[in-house]
Every structure is written in structure tokens, then in C-alpha cells.
Known about the structure:
Blueprint: E1 2-8, E2 11-16, E3 27-36, H1 39-47, E4 49-50, E5 53-54, E6 59-60, E7 64-72, E8 84-87, E9 90-91, H2 97-100, E10 111-112, E11 126-130, E12 134-137, H3 143-146, H4 149-162, E13 169-173, H5 177-188, E14 193-197, H6 201-209, E15 214-216, H7 223-227, E16 231-236, H8 241-250, E17 251-259, H9 272-278, E18 281-284, H10 292-299, E19 312-315, H11 319-327, E20 336-339
Helix pairs in contact: 4-5, 4-10
Amino acid sequence: MKAIVQTGIRRLELAQRPEPAISRADEVLFKVEAVGVCGSDIHYYRSGQIGDKVVEYPFPLGHECAGTVVAVGAAVVHLQPGDRIAIDPAVSCGACDQCSGGRPHTCRRLLFLGCPGELDGCLSEYYILPASCCFKVDPHTSLERAALVEPLSIGCYAVQLAQLKPGMKVGILGLGPIGFAVLVAARTQGLDWFGVSDPLRYRRQLALAKGARVACDPHATDPVQALGDALDVVFECCGQQSALGDACRLLTPGGKLVVIGIPEAEQVVFDPHLLRRAEIAIQSVRRQNGCMQMAIDLVENPDLDLDFMHTHTFALEATSAAFELVDGYRDQVVKAVVLPPA
């Protein structure tokens, strides 16, 4: 089968790899139909690592996946060939203390698609996963929309962790797909005041069109001057040191910083005196925990505008162009989706 592998910094190649076959009763073989290009994919593409996760070449990338079931193992009862599915790319063991305690997303032996040393990515024609990672979606839901389920599930989980309440003022720093996923998820919870920050003008304009009250360029304006210093919750969605510092200054005393962005740096710094004096709580987000169905409900809602998040489509053979587009923030990209051949 055809697959995309990373062979060096900023180098992707089309390769032939063996087609997978079911070997366990709980497995699902599916045709990969759509793969979103994620910011973490771009980290690996650009620098070859995220923290201590270092790519060994050649390496297959990709984890934001939707597809169609081809075959199922004997123990799989909730899926059958022909079903359209969205994929949770995290494979947990189901037996450790974290899994037993309702935290499979922090499983001690967790394996993640497209993560060095763990599992191959899904930028390929076929893939096999445990049935527990495969979630059925309505057949009328487009494949591109189904590929949004994974990033939307992160937004849903972050909003859940934030414990938002009506009337709260919310900040979102970084308007990539995850920032927009947070905006979508929070609006479904009834929140109506959002201040956003992003250096890209087209993304600020898009956020204002989708419900934000105030938007600023953090490179041109102090976010505190634009958004105020009384926000109840700030979601940091870009992995930048400057955004982490801005978030702490934007929060009201007793506010909460929700950290979703993945920094390229090994370490980040907080002002401990500001955190202490304002008693700011910091909540990190580890992917998603039990929010796949919540995200599926969003993509299956025909009245919810999500198409603005999917801006570009590429064939598998053009994956390099997709990565270059996303890495360079070209052509007003929000989310690029790769469609392996039918």
C-alpha cells in the first residue's frame, strides 16, 4: 500500500509498505479516507522532535484520521464493514492504575499514532487499530468533517476541564485548529464573551465572524490593553512562551490558565510572584479523555458551522505541499486534510 514517511527534516516521501492484516479479535481494519495535518506533525516535520520524542527515519506521520471499516475481528460487535469511523489515535492498555482510575489518556503504557517510539502514523491507505479507538459516525457526515473529530475532542476536553460557567469571560491565545475547536466547544456551552489573540489577521477576522468579541495581534498590541485583565479562563493554544506570560497577566485573581499548546522549547517560564499573588490555577491538557462522542455529536450537527475549519484538501501524493502550506501559514490555511486514494 501507499504511505507517506518522513525521511529527514522537511522531507516526506511516498513509499510502499505492507498492507496490514487483522491478527487479534478486537481489531478493526479500515481504509484511511481523510487525515488532518496537525501542529504536532509540523513540529516533527520542521525539527524532527517534540521534547524527548525524537524521530528515527524513515517514520510515518499522521493521527487525525477518519475512514471506512474494511474488516473486523471476531470480538468486534459495534462496527461492521462499510461503517464510517473517526479515530481516537491514543491506544491505552486498559490495565494500569491510570486506565483503572478513569484516565486512559494518561495510560502508563499509552501508544499514540504518529509518535516516535510508539505507533506508525496513519498517512497511508489502510490502518489497523483496536475497536475501542474506532467511533462510528453518520454515513452522511463528510470524511473531511469526520477528520475534525480528533482536534474537536481536544477542544471539548479542554472546555470540560476549564469548568466554564455562564457569564465567564474567556480568552483564547492562538487561533490554529485547536484554538478554533475551543471556541466552537465553549460556544456550545452557552459562553458568549471571548477575547482572542493571534498574529495572523485572517484568523482574527475569522474568529470575530465566529463569535469572538475582541481580537488582537499580540505582536502589535499588548493583549492586556486589548482584552483586559479580568478574564476568568484563558486557553493557551499556540505553545509560545510569550502567550503563557500574556495569559497570566490577562487572568483575574483566582482565574484559570488552561495549557493546550505544545512548546518546541524544552522548558517554559512563569512569573511565580504573579501566579502566587493572583492565585492562578494552571491546568494542562493531555489530548482528550472520553470526549470523542461529544465531538462526533458536533460534527454530526448540520446546523453547526464547522466547514470554516477545513480550508484545504490534498491528495496523498501531495502531502509535502500540505505540510509546507500549514508550516508557512499560507493561503489563509486553518486545517489542511490529506485524502488517500479511494
